[in-house]
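In the current project phase, work has continued on tokenised descriptions of protein folds. One protein thus recorded appears below exactly as we store it.

——
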Amino acid sequence: MQKIAYLTIDDAPSSDFRRKVDYLSAKSIPAVFFCIGKLLERRQVDAVYAVRRGFILGNHSYSHIPFSDMCLYDCYKDIARADALIDRIYKRAKKPRPAKFFRFPFGDKGGLKHTEVFERYTAAGERRKEKLQQFLKSLGYRQPKFPRITYKYYKKAGLLDDVDWHWTYDVMEYAIFEKEHPFGIDTIKKVFDRMDENVPEGCRGLNYRGSDEIILVHDHANSAKLFMPIIERLLSKGLSFRLPISFSR
């Protein structure tokens, strides 16, 4: 069975955004761009361009501040402000908004602990997280069904049940440009070496055929030169890139 991958690209749109759109379009690779509202305001023309080429714009908050670091009221405002901006872009593109998808900045779901996503929050944190989930739902946000994502760690954390999207595989190309390189990733070779690992229950399951994959890569200007080689490397794994079936065109 061919392994299906859903490509999600965070922190869009960068100054290199349009080039990425053109490249993915030429390769017939669909993607969801999770956009930061304050960047969208600067590059609305580019965002309209992407929408007209069939890409989906997701909400990645307006300010990209960890939600555990903000009061609930500010979290609501941050979500709604970016949501309204995405609506305006779809109207400018003269296209219906096909779905409302949300991803929390840094994967921090607002439970007052944004460094250990797969551990349980405190009771107070769970209540806070649930209020954010309900707010997203009230705005029409939904996570599509991913019946062929089978990782035990992912299901145990309840990530398939939340309104927002998480990811099963983080390419981690951003680590190259961090002062303290997470997991020692400081070269593109190490990014590629990690792609060759086979640790399905350790968030490194690209080579495991028993589950589909939600892949996370970033739209950062400083890693623009790495984007195409990364996608080519992913393609070499025999992945079939698709949109969730409910929203495929």
The domain at 4-247 is CATH 3.20.20.370 (TIM Barrel). The two ends are 22 Å apart (CA to CA). The mean pLDDT is 94. The longest helix spans residues 72-93.
